[in-house]
Automatic annotation (TrEMBL):
Presence of keyword Ion transport: no
Annotated protein name in UniProt: Glycerol-3-phosphate dehydrogenase [NAD(P)+]
InterPro entries to which the protein is assigned, alphabetical: 6-PGluconate_DH-like_C_sf, 6PGD_dom2, G3P_DH_NAD-dep, G3P_DH_NAD-dep_C, G3P_DH_NAD-dep_N, NAD(P)-bd_dom_sf
Native source species: Halopseudomonas salegens
Sequence positions that bind sn-glycerol 3-phosphate: K109, G137, K192, D245, S255, R256, N257
Length: 347
């Protein structure tokens, strides 16, 4: 069934699934994109476009598409998942046993209830015998689809698995770095969405460049503090899946989470902001899950608490900002103390 460059299946025909599948197809990898909407499948196959999610992008004519989930995964030793976190369980329920011994790569940047469930947890529950990795980095789909150069991280303690994903996905437009810290990479990808909402809000409110820099830097401190508390390697957050992804999502109006924040800063309600987007912004749900977990674990996350207060506790923005600015003044990079006692390998 396998060789070092495919065949590959990509599940999910939104912005990111279409982009990843298209990159690999253009690079000569045999790839099948699965999506549920027959009209979109027909458009991709006949017109080589996906106007719902990537308007104006011409897709490679070698990209194969299907609405038959079993057919997509049957012959693929490597399977990428680009399904929103809220839908991952229902998709995997249809194919779990088929995934035994396959490489399954989650690109989904969300966390789900009950508790604090990562996408890799959901995959391992549905497909206990799959070889699971996560992929994360500064990867705005639209830019990648336009051919901009970027890099990403594939993370798993299984080095052969990482190598297989590097072989299949790495190409002239995309460098794929490996990491052993799957947990840290997955947390980085999910957590930065929350801070992108805050950054979008700050931009809409006309806040200064110093303010934006402070926000991004303190966001990095906060997400690292949480992740280290949970068992991740702090050094992961200095890499592409940490600071790399945080910078791009907090600075770019192409990020859907940033756009939700911007709409909120313009005075729209959360429902209006999400509805006008028409695509998934994982940060809204992640904020709920993260706040609950940070409280339960006793981790200090003032930015998360502040955004939660604005979005879900009806607290006025100026009061929240006032509280953040008057909080006790602490040490900079205090989380670096962990680095001295944390091994460099993945955990
Ligand atoms: N876009 C990006 O730049 C990046 C996104 N990601 C992550 O990838 C994940 C997917 O995001 P993205 O592609 O952007 O999302 P989009 O909103 O662009 O697309 C969502 C896709 O998921 C499909 N979908 C939704 N529910 C189901 C379901 N129950 N069964 C099958 N398909 C379903 C949608 O199908 P339909 O149209 O039929 O509703 C659509 O094809 C997210 O977790 C995101 O954080 C990661 C890196 C970059
Ligand atoms: O994860 C992303 C870029 O790396 C995409 O971010 P958004 O989901 O906010 O668009």
């Amino acid at each position: 069934m396998s060789n070092s460059r495919g065949p590959v299946a990509v599940l999910g025909g939104g912005s990111f699934g279409t982009t990843l599948a298209n990159l690999m197809a253009a690079d000569g990898v045999p790839v099948t994109l699965w999506l549920r909407d027959a009209a979109v499948a027909e458009e991709i196959s006949q017109q080589h476009s996906n106007t719902r999610y990537l308007p104006g992008i011409e897709l490679d004519s070698k990209l194969r598409v299907t609405t038959d989930l079993l057919q997509a995964v049957e012959q693929a030793p490597v399977i990428f998942l680009a399904i929103p976190s809220s839908a991952l369980r229902s998709v995997l329920a249809q194919i779990g046993p088929l995934l035994a011994d396959r490489i399954v790569v989650s690109t989904t940047k969300g966390i789900q209830l009950p508790g604090f469930v990562l996408m890799s947890d959901i995959i391992e529950e549905a497909a206990p015998k799959a070889r699971v990795a996560v992929l994360s980095g500064p990867n705005l789909a639209r830019e990648m689809a336009e051919g901009a150069l970027t890099a990403t991280v594939v993370a798993s303690p299984d080095e052969a698995l990482c190598q297989a994903v590097q072989d299949v996905l790495g190409g002239s437009k995309l460098r794929v770095y490996a990491s052993l810290d799957r947990y840290g990479v997955e947390l980085g990808g999910a957590l930065k969405n929350v801070y992108a909402i805050i950054a979008g809000m700050a931009a809409a409110l006309g806040m200064g460049e110093n303010t934006k820099s402070m926000l991004i830097t303190r966001a990095l401190a906060e997400m690292t503090r949480f992740a280290v508390h949970m068992g991740a390697n702090p050094l992961t957050f200095l890499g592409l899946a940490g600071v790399g992804d945080l910078i791009v999502t907090c600075m770019s109006p192409k990020s859907r989470n940033y756009r939700v924040g911007f709409a909120l800063g313009e005075g729209k309600s959360l429902d209006e902001a999400v509805a006008s987007l028409g695509q998934v912004a994982e940060g809204v749900n992640t904020l709920r899950v993260l706040k609950q977990k940070a409280d339960a674990e006793g981790v200090y996350m003032p930015l998360v608490a502040g955004l939660h207060a604005i979005l879900f506790e009806q607290q006025p923005l100026d009061k929240v900002i006032g509280r953040l600015m008057s909080a006790e003044q602490k040490q900079d990079v205090e989380f670096a103390a962990f680095m001295a006692c944390t091994p460099l390998e993945g955990v």
